[in-house]
Amino acid sequence: MARTRLRSALSSWTLVVPLLALVVLALTWGRDLGVLPVILVALLLGGAVLAAVHHAEVVAHRVGEPFGSLILAVAVTVIEVALIVTLMVSGGEETATLARDTVFAALMITVNGIAGISLLVGALRYGTTLFNAEGSGAALATVATLAALSLVLPSFTTSHPGPEFSGSQLTFAALASLALWGMFVFTQTVRHRDFFLPVTPEGEPDETEEHAAPPSARAALISLALLVVALVAVVGLAKVESPAIEAGVRSVGFPPSFVGVVIALLVLAPETLAAVRAALRQRIQISLNLAFGSAMASIGLTIPAIALAGIWLDGPLVLGLEPTQTVLLLLTIVVSALTIVPGRATRLQGGVHLVLLAAFLFLAVNP
């Protein structure tokens, strides 16, 4: 009985915090905040991140993998895309590179950050991490193709001056991105679902559940609704905190573009925590599903959304990466391929990915 009451008390905060965060978001949106409100928003932001992870895991337990990690990746990305489009509509020409910078930051954080820390944590606890090279390799190939089509090619096309697509080229990139993302989701959830399940030490798909009984359908639906609420709160409160973050960035002498990196880190915090917790349970495949799935959804959904929003947007839309960013992207793809091919990794591979993330962050501060 005492254990039941303790479990109920621990789970109740996951209901209260997202709703409270949403109320505070409505009260603080578009206002200048003092020191105490900024601290309150920061605390609720952290609580909403933890609540999002909890509800994502409840939903994942109900629907099983890889659907669970797909739900979290898509939910975060849809809200992230909405935030990008909103900022671009209201920002004018000053936001010409916002979509590129945000998508690239999300790509580096997911493929190097989420995957790297998951591999490192898993290897530190279990010595060697095991995953399905076929599924992870297919995900990485899709991410690489999406990144090249949407972020690299604009710097080399000649129909439009500058690192921009022409209207027809942007339409093609948007349709290709949607097609690739759709084909991957079908492969992951229907045709070759076993490629994206955790593997046993013998290399076989592991479909065993981690808990005795999955939650009821009602509990899963409630958690799904609260997951959406928590993610809206995470992204919204991150936007509310952005003036304070921007002031902090200026005070330490960082370039203004680093604000986007900080916000991307906050928005991706739920997926990062969920991936690390999966790695600690020796289910590194779930961590990689989250990392590559988030990177894929970030590109595959953002570019079509931006292309559609281009009907109302004024000013240029710069998608082509700068030379330094292109080098980091190519190095990330090569290193990721070498990590994935063996189907197992040690702490060294995790460390290499984290060094690449550190290089990205350092160059974002000191370009």
Automatic annotation (TrEMBL):
Principal location listed in the UniProt entry: membrane
Listed InterPro entries: Alkaline_pH_Ca-Antiporter (IPR052946), NaCa_Exmemb (IPR004837)
Topological type in the membrane: Multi-pass membrane protein
Compartments where found: Membrane
Keyword hit for Flavoprotein: no
Residue ranges of domain Sodium/calcium exchanger membrane region in the record: 38-189, 223-364
A Pfam cross-reference name: Na_Ca_ex
Ranges that cross the membrane: 12-29, 35-55, 67-91, 103-124, 136-156, 168-186, 219-238, 258-276, 288-312, 324-341, 348-365
Superkingdom classification of source: Bacteria
Keywords: Membrane, Transmembrane, Transmembrane helix
The protein, known as: Ionic transporter y4hA
UniProt source species: Streptomyces zingiberis
